[in-house]
Amino acid sequence: MRFLQITFVLLILMLGSITALLGSHAGNQYLVERLNNAGLPLHLELDSGTVFNQARWTKIDWQGDLLQLSIIDLDYDIDLSCLFGGELCVNSLNAAAVSYSMALAKERSVLLGIDLGDALTRIAELDDQISNNDWQLDIPIFIRVANIDIHHINVVIANTRITADRLEGAVNLSGRDISVTQVKTTNVFVQVLTAEKSNALASTKQAIARVENNKQLDAVSALLNEFELYQVSIPLRVDVHDAKLIQSKLQINDLFLDFNAIDLIGFIDAGEVNIEKLVVDMPQADTSIKGNIVLQQGYPLYVNARTTFKQPALLNHLVIDVKAGGSLDKIDLAIKTSGPINTHIDASLAPLQPALPFTIQANWQHVGWPLLSPAYIEAKDGSLSLQGDLDDYNIVFSGSLDIDNAPLINLDAEGKGSLQGLLFSTINAQTLGGTVVASAQLDWVDGIQVSSDIATKGVQLDKYWPEVKLRPNGDAKIDFKLESDNDWRVDIHDINVAADMAGYPLTLQGQLTLNQD
Q1: Which pLDDT does position 200 carry in this prediction?
Q2: Per-residue pLDDT tens digits for 67-86
Q3: Which residues, 6 or more positions from 345, have their beta carbon under 8 angstroms from its beta carbon?
């Protein structure tokens, strides 16, 4: 009996000690001091309250080798009475400033600051563990965080920096479900700097840029040759009922994009990503997107998107509707434009195949330039077909060209293209009762270079200009080059043209050179 009494007293003393440590501010201060002296890269400053109820932390700081985290003036209010109903209620969670940084030890191949190889490997390993263990997230009680208010957020991961003035929201957690009922972020700035700094001359910079672009294309081609889709299945569901980003900016090297607002409703469930609504308001255009992708098998997907341009003035009210379906093995696209430009484009591409095989079929009834009336160049009843891959594709073009103060021209062209340029084997133009036949090669790897052979036969200029009694027949070669410093040169050579001018024979031979001077 006495043993039971002693045991009972000791149990009460232990519970009292634990309650004193965890339930009182003095006890919490003692625990904080012990943690600060534990040899960890951790520093805690508890100003008032207790860990489990109405705590106010002056500072929470972790300065580890892998990552650094600092939270200033964190306070939260937990309603412990909810525990009797099987819930955990956090009435408020506030912080004056949060900073997080993780610097990579060495430069890696990254996209938007993310090491894709490492990220995909980790996803694959996690997915394999989940699949083998059949593990699912299971939060045993309902957790409700009613009011989140965090100011001055600063996140740095490798070469990507994300800052935000304020984040407000509310979230519920239960079982495998995370429900973001509301989140609003203000003045978000995402900065991604990947370009190397150089003090070289502009021409040298452009030469380096061309070399780097070629390296990137080679890297993409190699990646596509080896890439296999990871079968992703995360052990939870995340619902976003109302997410807003207000006044955001994105910088990728020298590219700057401003966003007035971004609204999102959607969910992620296992391997399924669903976007019920994504509305992006930018100064230049408004875009709305709805879609779904399943990160399993070939990643089946569908996307409906509409973009309405507001700037520049030439594109004002231009609407682009895009419908995409299929999978990442093959994506089928239907693109329709209306407003200043009316076209219809059907396309398909295989983004996971080497060199990106694709087909494009574009048709239009009327396209004018400038887009604002009156247009002095009009392309009518046109079609453009592209088929192949980025290393080798075929081009077929047909249509009519109506230019102010010039006769109507019916054009047909066939050629081939690659990442380095275009080669038109045949260009036929019919006008004024005659034909103009040409071939041309366009190269844009080192500046822009055009080499062409032109021959004309049976053209009767007096059909359009009655006072010009000239019917030229012959051929010539035309070379054009635009340098990276904007210097240009046109060389017309091997001119051999014979013409009948009002009954008198006329022969033109020689060479003509023009440049920016």
Answers
A1: 44
A2: 899 999 999 998 888 888 88
A3: 333, 334, 335, 336, 360, 361, 362, 363
Burial of 515 (C-beta count, 10 Å sphere; 0-12/13-18/19+): exposed
Q: Helix, strand or coil for residue 144?
A: strand
Measured between alpha carbons, how far is 210 from 217 in angstroms, rounded to an integer? 11
Residues 146, 169 contacting (CB under 8 angstroms): no
Residue with tokens 């429900």: 179
pLDDT tens digits, 17-73? 555 556 577 777 877 888 888 888 889 998 888 877 788 889 999 998 888 999 999
How far is the C-alpha of 343 from the C-alpha of 380, rounded, in Å? 11
pLDDT at 22: 60
49: left (phi > 0), else alpha (psi -120 to 50), else beta?
A: left
The secondary structure element, H or E, covering residue 117 is: helix 116-133
Rg (the chain; Cα; Å): 34
* Residues paired with 88 in a beta bridge: 143
What's the CA dihedral at 175, 180, 181, 184 to 10 degrees?
Answer: 160
Q: Are 130 and 235 in contact (CB under 8 A)?
A: yes
pTM of the model: 0.73
Average pLDDT taken over every residue of the chain:
82
The answer to whether the beta carbons of residues 162 and 188 sit under 8 Å apart is yes
Helices 2-23 and 25-36: crossing angle, nearest 10°?
A: 80
Given a contact cutoff of 8 angstroms between Cβ atoms, the answer to whether 346 and 333 are in contact is: yes
Residue-wise pLDDT tens digits, 188-224: 999 988 755 444 444 445 555 555 555 555 555 555 5
Q: Which of 113, 179, 187, 181 is nearest to 150 (CA)?
A: 187
Alpha carbon 442 to its chain centroid, in Å, reads 29
DSSP string, 33-99: HHHHTTTSSEEEEEEEEETTEEEEEEEEEEE-SS-EEEEEEEEEEEEGGGGGGTEEEEEEEEEEEEE
Count the Cβ atoms, other than its own, within 10 Å of residue 352.
20
**368 is written with which tokens?**
């004018």
Q: Which of 298, 303, 396 is nearest to 353 (CA)?
A: 298
450 or 335, greater pLDDT: 335
Sequence ranges of the domains in the chain: 283-515
Query: Euclidean distance between the first and final Cα of the chain, in Å?
Result: 113
